[in-house]
Amino acid sequence: MHLVKVTRKSSLSDEFTQMHHSSHPSPSPSPLQSTSSPLSHNYSDYNSDIPNRSRSLSLTSDHSLLSQISDYNLPKKVAPNMKDFLEGLDKEFGDGKFTCYLPIFEEQEIRVSHLITLSDSEYILMGVTIIGRRQTLRNEAKKYE
User: Fold this and answer.
1) In this structure, what DSSP letter does residue 106 have?
2) What span, in angstroms and rounded, lies between the C-alpha atoms of 116 and 110?
3) How do residues 82-110 score in pLDDT, each as one tens digit?
4) Number of domains, the chain
5) Residues of the domain holding 130
6) At CB < 8 A and 24+ separation, what contacts does 12-19 make?
7) Is the backbone of residue 127 left (phi > 0), alpha (psi -120 to 50) or beta?
8) Cα–Cα distance list, 36 to 39, 40, 42, 48 (Å)
9) Tens digits of per-residue pLDDT, 25-84?
10) Is residue 127 part of a domain?
11) Is residue 63 part of a domain?
């Protein structure tokens, strides 16, 4: 069995207090005897703000990551040929609603990418008189920009 002797050493604060009282007889308390430390007050204020700072940092980091990703030239969706494009619309919106325009689009050499920029009057000249269909053609073609 080992015996351990425990002794209490005076702390730096105790030593300073003793030195301060012996060299200065005035009754004013030493800075180390004050009940609150200037650092503890500032430190606690800092700690209470950590969740807000973390959240702000997180949002900033996510934003910068997003901007880095968007800076890369990500591959765009390849536009299908007009026949496949119109057949896809027919499947979604109803048989024959869009493939009926295939012959005129082929005659006028219209590509899917052209559908976005065609004016209403150009659509009407090609027989696309229904406003909703013109909008659908434009909106669906924008997915391939």
Assistant:
1) H
2) 11
3) 999 999 999 999 999 999 999 999 999 99
4) 1
5) 82-142
6) none
7) left
8) 8, 7, 11, 18
9) 555 555 555 455 454 445 445 455 545 444 444 444 445 554 455 545 556 789 999 999
10) yes
11) no
- 59/65 Cα distance (integer angstroms): 10
Tell me the torsion sign for CA atoms 41, 45, 47, 53: negative
C-alpha 114: how far from chain center: 33
Helices (H), 1-145: 12-23, 38-48, 50-71, 82-93, 102-107, 120-125, 131-142
Q: In one letter, which amino acid is 88? A: G
Q: Is 85 exposed, middle or buried (0-12, 13-18, 19+ CB in 10 A)?
A: buried
Note whether residue 66 is domain-resident. no
Q: How many residues are given for the chain? A: 145
Rounded Cα–Cα distance for residues 117 and 7 (Å): 90
